[in-house]
């Protein structure tokens, strides 16, 4: 069903009830601009079955990538920061 923005604002409760039946289109000046879906329909479309971080990360396209998270254990390199530790000279 298509709703004008005015009707959608005035009858929001009814729009939300009907969203359980199927997508509800909202138009502005006769141009379709938005769709209201039930939460269940949204989750089916996005594949997000869990509303938590773990579910989000599992649904990520990077979920199966093997990352090397090992940090190097060698000593940090020495840096020459100049005679005064790299601070700007007075008056410069």
Would you write up a description of this structure?
With 92 residues, the chain is of the alpha+beta class. It has a domain at 2-58: YefM-like domain (YefM-like fold), CATH 3.40.1620. The chain is 30% helix and 15% strand. It contains four helices and three strands, in the order βααββαα. It has helices at residues 5-10, 12-19, 39-46, 53-58; strands spanning 2-4, 24-28, 31-36. The chain has a three-stranded mixed β-sheet with strand order 1-2-3. A hairpin with a 2-residue loop joins strand 2 (24-28) and strand 3. The chain is elongated, with a radius of gyration of 28 Å. The N and C termini lie far apart (70 Å). The mean pLDDT is 85.
As for the CATH topology of the domain at 2-58, it is: YefM-like fold
**Amino-to-carboxy terminus distance:** 70 Å
Task: Specify the CATH class of the domain at 2-58.
Answer: Alpha Beta
CATH superfamily of the domain at 2-58: YefM-like domain
Mean pLDDT: 85
Which percent bin holds the helix content? 25-40%
- The CATH architecture term of the domain at 2-58 is 3-Layer(aba) Sandwich
Task: Write a compact overview of the structure shown.
The protein is of the alpha+beta class and 92 residues long. It is 30% helix and 15% strand.
Structure characteristics:
92 residues, alpha+beta, YefM-like fold, three-stranded mixed beta sheet, 4 helices, 3 strands
């Amino acid at each position: 069903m298509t709703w004008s923005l005015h009707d959608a604002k005035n009858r929001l409760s009814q729009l939300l009830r009907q969203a359980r039946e199927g997508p509800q289109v909202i138009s502005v000046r006769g141009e379709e601009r938005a769709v209201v879906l039930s939460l269940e329909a949204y989750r089916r479309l996005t594949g997000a079955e869990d509303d938590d971080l773990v579910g989000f990360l599992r649904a990520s396209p990077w979920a199966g990538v093997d990352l090397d998270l090992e940090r190097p254990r060698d000593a940090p390199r020495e840096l020459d920061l100049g005679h005064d530790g790299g601070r700007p000279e007075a008056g410069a």
